[in-house]
What does this fold into?
Amino acid sequence: MSTPRRVLVIGGGASGNAVTILLRRAGLAVELIEARPDWNATTGSGITLQGNALRVLRELGVWEEVSACGYAFGSLGVTIPDGTVIHEIEDIRTGGEDLPATLGMQRPRLQQILIDAVRACGATVRLGTTARTLEQDADGVSVRFSDDTTGRYDLVIAADGLNSTTRATIGIADKPEPTGMAIWRTPAPRPEGVTRTDLAYGGPAYIAGYCPTSENTIYAYVVEANRDRASIPPETYADEMRRLAQAYGGVWPEIVEHITDPAKVNYTWFDKLLVEGSWHRGRVVLVGDAAHCCPPTIAQGAAQSLEDASVLAELLTSGRDWDEDLYQAYYERRIPRVRTVVEASVQIGQWQLDGVRDADVPGLIGRTMNILKELP
It folds into this structure.
């Protein structure tokens, strides 16, 4: 059986961009479509990347630029609401000793670095485009796009996110479920002395935290029980986040001074999803949030999506036939690791929702991160 050469990637987020770069590097013809005309280049405030995410970014060839733009650190502080540090945890280097344990950076900057790498790798990119229909047969997938053009592919990789329409189109009925929590996020200038993530537990929110994203910036966040989005007018987003955040001490008063623009504040529910059984139907394969998602309680969402891309690309370029066995091997290699992350991330949030005061959060995080030190 000849090796298929033509791949369509649906979705230009972290996993879609990553798998595009890796498959193009191997000489495959890759076309990437992204629904948003701006390629999500300005969306989001910040992102926390653990070492195993940095390992994949190094594989993509963008680590030096990521390192130059981000802010690396190696510990986590736990505080009470007044800002007093009661516990310091050394972060585990899940990417190996030659990479930082953790790096924060501005999410739009990471996306732009990946966009530039996709452009440079020679992939065909079509923005403002979606897949309208997918028709599979034994030899490939015929796709009709939203602009009424068509294409024929040996493989379609669905990287179209949490609410993936491709997932539903191929008959996978799983949908994300809310966990009961929601998060307010905003970028802000970095207060002097903020050199790592600190998390405050208690007060009016479940968690109040921040992460340095460059020498000059952070992103700050507060986590509360989810509310009906329709009940919160977008023009009040800054007021709502400021109301929650002003109860916290330490550097929070300085951060609160900058929570003024509602357009810079994002409100998102925490969701969970884990597709079981397989992540493919025929020649359409899911990666990233289309297959799994979890609350950011251990900051592993992007890392697991990037690992999906790395493992799938490795298998597709290994010389094996592109068949059911290969696609199932991808799932079986990923599912134990992803399940561990999803279950741990959800459990930490559930403990807070249930008011469990003696929960072993550090122990669960430590056990999970030690597993993630192993290669995916």
Observations:
- The CA atoms of residues 1 and 342 lie 37 Å apart.
